[in-house]
Design brief:
Strand content: under 5%
Order of helices and strands: HHHHHHH
Shape: elongated
Largest sheet: none
CATH class: Mainly Alpha
Radius of gyration: 15 Å
Number of strands: 0
CATH topology: Arc Repressor Mutant, subunit A
CATH superfamily: Homeodomain-like
Number of domains: 1
Helix content: over 70%
Length: about 100
């Protein structure tokens, strides 16, 4: 699949600030074509896919590390704890703090 190099790159660079334009440039196609490919092959948008990578990594960090949640948010590529908290809740149905408390 044409997206494979990009998907591998995203998995290695998720913590960096990445835009849809960056993703499209990475595989030399337009943003519109990139979005079509993501929808066709992954049933997702490029931004949503990247957020899923970040949130799964954040969940793993909360599970295994003793980092503060603000540190986790920044480490996985979110620009603020608030945006991280909203995205985490949207993905998993609980806040990151609730998730972390109930692991113990």
């Amino acid at each position: 699949m044409r997206l494979n190099p990009l998907l591998e790159w995203l998995a290695e660079n998720y913590q960096r600030p990445i835009t849809v334009t960056d993703m499209a440039d990475k595989i030399a196609i337009s943003e519109r074509q990139l979005t079509r490919l993501f929808k066709r092959h992954l049933n997702s948008t490029p931004s949503h896919y990247l957020n899923q990578i970040r949130l799964k990594r954040a969940r793993d960090l909360i599970t295994c590390e003793t980092l503060r949640l603000e540190q986790v948010a920044l480490q996985v590529g979110f620009t603020s704890y608030d945006s991280f908290r909203r995205a985490f809740y949207g993905q998993f149905g609980v806040s990151p703090s609730y998730f972390g408390r109930n692991l113990r």
